[in-house]
Specification:
single chain; 281 residues; mainly alpha
Length: 281
């Protein structure tokens, strides 16, 4: 009887050389292009037009400005526009409609922080300043076009209700009025970027708009505070819009008020950019 032979030891296969590059290099069929601001603008445009908050806020804005403007225009006569532009009815709608643009401006940036999607945004576009710049540009363009359309339509409706040519040119009020409320929305966006909280940013912006309109009545009760109250009354949002729409032609056309808002908005934008680079997501 033969003695069983022990099993032959199996040779271990040599480990593949994973560190070596393949003989033939792989080329991806997906084109690789260097990203730029245009890509960020396209991304932000896709966001702002696809979320419900944009449709709701802009829809309510148009309803307020055009609806209230139409109701006011229907109660006027030809003599009411002897020395004022036909866009004045839009002023009454903008007093409420500006809150819609402020709210939308905050939500454009703060909603992404609330849902955590801002991490995805910054992963896709590590250049944070480019993302914020795209948000500012897209929002300002949308707000300006929509508000100019609403004010201009109210002017056309009012002019159609009254006979005779326009006694006062009203094209400038369309541009300046739209620019003012759009800058308010951009200021809200910058504040939302700094605070990263929807409720806090909206409350802050409502304070910026409402407090200067209410406080002068109390400040001017004191002689020492009267100067501050008068300045606050001169530059608050309602009075600025009233001057832009030339309700009182002797008080100017709102250029100083618009310039002040532009300066404050620019300072807030600079602060938003600085904090964006210094803070973590």
């Amino acid at each position: 009887m033969s003695t069983p032979q022990p099993p032959m030891p199996q040779q271990t296969a040599a480990a593949p050389e994973w560190h070596q590059a393949p003989g033939t290099s792989y080329t991806s069929p997906i084109p690789v292009t260097r990203t730029h601001l245009g890509h960020a603008l396209n991304s932000e445009w896709t966001k702002i037009k696809s979320v419900r908050s944009t449709l709701w806020t802009l829809g309510i804005f148009l309803l307020l400005v055009i609806g209230i403007g139409f109701l006011v225009a229907a109660q006027t006569t030809n003599e009411d526009f002897g020395d004022v532009p036909y866009t004045i009815p839009a002023f009454f709608g903008l007093m409420l409609g500006q809150i819609c643009l402020i709210t939308l401006g905050v939500l454009v940036v703060s909603s992404e922080y609330g849902t955590g999607m801002i991490r995805t945004t910054f992963t896709a576009s590590p250049q944070r300043h480019r993302v914020l710049a795209a948000k500012l540009i897209i929002f300002f363009a949308v707000a300006f076009v929509v508000s100019a359309f609403a004010i201009g339509l109210v002017g056309l409706i009012t002019e159609g209700m009254h006979s005779g040519p326009a006694p006062v040119p009203w094209g400038g009020t369309v541009v300046m009025g739209a620019l003012y409320v759009s800058l308010l929305g951009v200021l809200a966006l910058a504040v939302g970027s700094m605070l990263r909280h929807s409720a806090g940013a909206i409350t802050t912006m409502l304070g910026v708009v409402l407090v200067p309109a209410i406080m002068p009545a109390f400040l001017m009760m004191s002689e020492s505070m009267r100067t501050l109250g008068e300045k606050m009354q001169e530059y608050n949002a309602p009075n600025a819009l009233a001057r832009i729409f030339q309700i009182d032609r002797e008080s100017g056309h709102g250029g100083a008020q618009l310039g002040l808002l532009a300066g404050v908005t620019a300072a807030a934008i600079v602060g938003a950019f600085v904090l964006l680079d210094r803070r973590d997501v």
